[in-house]
Design a protein that fits this description.
single chain; 639 residues; alpha+beta; five-stranded antiparallel beta sheet; 20 helices; 18% strand; flat
């Protein structure tokens, strides 16, 4: 009995593994059409059923019990007729291939299970079941079906089979169907959320973009690309404003973004009037925020630009013609209100009242602004205003009505409103209120996207070490710190010996594999959090060792060379018969005369070439002391 449970549990584990593989594949092959996804789903469940039959319990010669019927139900209920057809054909064909006395009952059981699965699919409205109670109900049907097909056996075998494996078959069929259904439902919901986020970013009507610390575009939506004469968002990656607009305009954008990155202050709804090509003039509202990772490190900035030309034109027309404005108010999407010089509401549109549901009763023509503010406070309509605010605070807030201001306010129900107040020459105040909840949510999405892209911006794609750009930034930072504090800074430059001959002899794929293994040795050598291993270029690597003196740096370099030798990667073109590396070491100390990081790199490079000239597979240390022109033989030590 215990063996039956163990075998069927192994069946369940195998099914779970195959389903997991399918989910990973379908997530990466998201461009597949729904039809091909159903075909793939049916095929993978067919393979799962075959695997289950290979691990089945053989009750009598030729009579097998496994979890194939549960997989048939899953294929039908969650994949539909196309998926079911593929799964059923594969399952029947393999059962016939296995042969034995149980072929006919086995095939009949598969057919019955397929029909019941199709019926449940029809009852569910010809779409996958998503609610957990319904999924568990399907699992119950699968469990009952697993017991029912035992009746297809001869009477003398039915009773013994029911007693011996009835309970394990029912339980494992229930678990397989239920677990598979819940897992598939969760994965489909996850995929839907991903597709919605991707569509929101790429198809949003406004202009969304993310820039790195060098003010170059990392990601944009399609509107940004089209606005700049590109038909794909990918063509914007790596470009800066200097590549797209006149230099003066690019300089203005650069300075504004530099201030955001240096101070951390956001640009919120900055409006500007621009003359574009063809003498078209438009108004734009731009918001830009600095992006930081979870450690607080600055990654770049995210921006949202909205074309507000229509809104600006509307406001201008209102000032010149109140009648035209009054008619347009009923049709515009934003809330609009006009207060007179005595702080009383003259008129407002329906949207203005609808945006403030808890204080809408107070926002009636003739109401004083202090009464409206009081209603907002007492009803807890704004998250940023306490309900127990004093009367003095209410009056102070009401007094700000006749001040030109832009304000973003959070409401009790999670919405965000942008309220813009403009004061007219006659003392009246025009208030425009917009629901910017979607924009706020987009900003959060952009931040998450920027975090996900951090690795792409700082990591070498082949070796997964830091790339050259990140290394240069880290070297500049550590060089400045070491120069300021007087602590030593060591730099190792590593070059794989005769790597071109290795590529010529073994091919570029083998060369890539070699570099990846060497990168693992470098990563292991950078033991401290401050140490940095990076791909310097081609077959060259670099290791940055802050607060490390010459002796320690040489010891690390020697351990690194020994680690590369211990890889024992065959290299017929090398005098050593295996892949080796030469290393150049340079040290920045208070006595050194290095004035720039480039000079430190040059010193390490000179030491590296001395290692090459001395026969390769060596470590060379160059010391630059108090004399700018030191003799190479005195300052280079071969180890």
């Amino acid at each position: 009995m215990n063996l039956v449970w163990q075998v069927l549990a192994g069946n369940l584990a195998t099914v779970a593994l195959i389903l997991s593989i399918w989910m990973h594949l379908s997530y990466r092959l998201y461009r597949m059409s729904p039809a091909w996804q159903r075909v793939g789903f049916g095929g993978i469940l067919g393979f799962a059923a075959i695997a289950s039959m290979l691990l089945s319990v053989e009750f009598e010669p030729g009579i097998y019990f496994d979890l194939r019927l549960a997989l048939i139900e899953v294929s039908a209920v969650f994949g539909g007729p196309v998926s079911l057809g593929i799964t059923a054909v594969m399952t029947i064909a393999f059962r016939i291939f296995l042969g034995g006395a149980g072929v006919v009952p086995g095939v009949i059981g598969i057919v019955i299970s397929s029909v019941i699965g199709l019926v449940m699919w029809q009852v569910a409205g010809r779409r996958p079941i998503e609610r957990p109670p319904a999924i568990l109900a399907v699992a119950g049907v699968a469990a009952a079906l697993g017991l029912a097909v035992l009746a297809l056996l001869p009477p003398q075998l039915f009773r013994s089979a029911l007693e011996a494996i009835g309970l394990p078959i029912a339980v494992l069929n229930f678990m397989t169907t239920g677990a598979s259904g819940l897992l598939i439902t969760y994965f489909r919901r996850f995929t839907l959320e991903r597709d919605i986020l991707y569509a929101a970013l790429t198809q949003a009507p406004d202009y969304y973009y993310v820039k790195d610390l060098d003010h170059r575009f990392v990601v944009t939506n399609l509107n940004v690309a089209r606005h700049n004469g590109r038909d794909r968002s990918s063509l914007m990656v790596g470009l800066s404003d200097f590549d797209l607009v006149p230099e003066q305009r690019a300089r203005e954008l650069y300075e504004a973004e530099r201030k955001v990155l240096e101070t951390g202050e956001t640009i919120s709804h900055f409006e500007e009037y621009l003359i574009e090509e063809g003498n078209w003039a438009r108004w734009y509202s731009t918001s830009k925020v600095p992006l930081r990772n979870r450690h607080g490190e600055l990654l770049g900035l995210a921006g949202v630009t909205v074309d507000i030309t229509d809104k600006k034109r509307f406001e201008t027309e209102y000032q010149s013609s109140r009648e035209v404005m009054a008619q347009a108010m009923a049709e515009m999407s934003d809330g609009l209100a006009m207060f007179d010089a005595a702080d009383r509401l003259v008129f407002c549109n329906d949207q203005y009242q609808a945006l403030f549901p808890r204080s809408a009763y107070a926002r009636q023509p003739g109401a004083h602004i202090s009464d409206i503010v009081r209603a907002v406070v007492r009803n807890g309509e704004r998250k940023d205003v306490p309900t127990d605010a004093s009367e003095e605070s209410i009056q102070a807030a009401a007094a700000t009505l006749h001040t030109n201001q832009d304000e973003v306010i959070p409401l009790f129900d999670g919405r965000w409103l942008a309220m813009r107040t403009r004061v007219g020459e006659n003392g009246s105040a025009l208030v425009v209120v917009s629901d910017i909840t979607a924009m706020k949510e987009s900003e959060l999405s952009l931040r998450k996207l920027a975090d996900q892209m951090k690795g792409l911006a700082q990591t070498d794609g082949l070796t997964e070490l830091a790339n050259r750009r990140y290394f240069d930034t880290a070297l500049a930072t550590e060089f400045s710190r070491a120069s300021r504090t007087g602590s030593p800074l060591s730099l190792l430059l590593i070059d794989v010996d005769r790597f071109k001959l290795f590529n010529d002899a073994y091919g570029h794929l083998a060369g890539d594999s070699c570099l990846i293994q060497i990168a693992g040795c470098l990563e292991a050598s950078a033991e401290r959090a401050a140490d940095l291993a990076a791909r310097f270029g081609g077959e060259e690597f670099a290791v940055l060792l802050p607060e490390t003196n010459a002796e320690a740096a040489v010891a690390i370099a020697d351990r690194l060379r020994e680690g590369i030798r211990e890889l024992s990667i065959e290299h017929g073109g090398s005098e050593f018969g295996i892949v080796t590396a030469s290393i150049g070491v340079a040290i920045l100390t208070p006595e050194s005369l290095f004035s720039t990081p480039a000079e430190l790199i040059g010193c390490a490079d000179a030491a590296l070439y001395r290692s090459k000239d001395a026969g390769r597979d060596r470590t060379s240390l160059m010391r630059l002391g108090n004399q700018r022109q030191a003799r190479p033989t005195d300052n280079i030590h071969l180890i």
